[in-house]
Each structure stands twice: as structure tokens, then as C-alpha cells.
Amino acid sequence: MKIKTLAAGLAAACLCAAQAQTVVKIGYATTATSHYGVGTNTFCEEIDKGTQGRYKCQQFPSGSLGGEREMVEAVQLGTLDLVNTSTGPVGNFVPEVKIVDIPFLFHATTSMRARCSTARSARTCSPSSRPRGWWPWPGLKTAFAT
Fold first, then answer.
1. How high is the pLDDT of residue 40?
2. 0.70 exceeded by the pTM?
3. In the chain, what's the furthest Cα-to-Cα distance?
């Protein structure tokens, strides 16, 4: 799920709740100063701005809620709202995701975007079912490893 779609969903949910503030719990395995932390901070700032403060993020960095796999499971159980994770543990829950972790699968970002833009590959490149959401182009680090 794209960040804008999630933000729109959260904003729509705000219409149902009176002016109450809702806390969104988000976990990640790396430190708050890592790329995951910076991305999560930006995401949380956008959620706060987009909902006029009705939604706030509570971050759990450095694997404080467990490893990536445990946090994905926590999202499934409903004890964690979001997890910012690599594609590694996701393949255990959505096997189609494993395809984007094959080294050298794509020779450039443009070929990956073209391949993932077809209706036939929509489920593999961006599954809409479990897990609930992720960054738009997973597996780039592995796909372009040298």
C-alpha cells in the first residue's frame, strides 16, 4: 500500500472519530538514525500533518518489539499497527514476494518499473493482501546488488 493511500485511509478514519487523538504504533529493527528511522520519521510527520494532529506515531526502533519476523507477526495479530521491514521476512507470509529478492532480477529501475506495471505482475510486485503495506518498490537493494 502506498504511503498516500495509507494516509488517506487514516484521514478518512478520522471522520468517524471525534477529535480524539489516535496513536499508531510502528516498529522497525534498525536504529532511529538509520534509513528506516529517517523514513519512519518522515512518514509520521506526514501523518501528523495530514490528519491535523488527530493521529500520532509511537515509534519502536532498534528491534525493541522483536526482530522483523516477530513484528510482521505482531501486525497480523493486531498488537502492532505498522512495521517498517525489509522484504526478507515478508516472503514467509506472502511467498510471491520472494521473487523480488532474486539477485540481478532486473538490470535497471526502469525495467523493474515496466515489469511491475503490468496487470499480470501486480500481485507479485505489490500484493494488496497480507502484509498490509510496504514501500512501493521492495527488493531494490538485493535486485541491484553488485
1. 93
2. no
3. 51
